[in-house]
Design a protein that fits this description.
Distance between the termini: 34 Å
Helix content: 10-25%
CATH class: Mainly Beta
Structural class: alpha+beta
Shape: globular
Order of helices and strands: HEEHEEEHEEE
Number of strands: 8
Strand content: 25-35%
CATH architecture: Roll
CATH topology: SH3 type barrels
Largest sheet: 6 strands, antiparallel
Length: 104
């Protein structure tokens, strides 16, 4: 069966988006964690924060320098730049739109 419900259109669009480092995602964009390139400590820390593969969150601030801030549900989470560069996501609703300054 290949039929999809209209409510699943956003999920399908996110699945079609390329996987990019979280550091490339701009403020206001929603991302879905795809994978983490890190050891057990990093995976445990992210899991304790509620961030694991498949979880959707919104980027609030990219830092530069400073912390990267995301909104997960009603909670703001601060993620260090070292962690951000090891997290790979699919940007929700942007099946691969890339601009000169990163994802737009």
């Amino acid at each position: 069966m290949t039929e999809k419900h209209e409510g699943n259109a956003n999920v399908a669009a996110a699945d079609a988006a390329p996987v990019v480092p979280l550091a490339k995602v701009g403020p206001g964009q929603e991302a879905i964690l795809s994978r983490v390139d890190g050891g057990r400590g990093l995976l445990l820390r992210l899991t304790e924060m509620g961030i694991r593969p498949g979880v959707r969150f919104r980027v609030l601030n990219r830092g530069r320098p400073g912390p990267f801030i995301v909104l997960l549900g009603a909670t703001r989470l601060v993620i260090g730049q070292g962690m951000v560069h090891r997290m790979f996501v699919r940007v929700a609703g942007l099946a691969g739109a890339v601009g000169a300054g990163g994802l737009i």
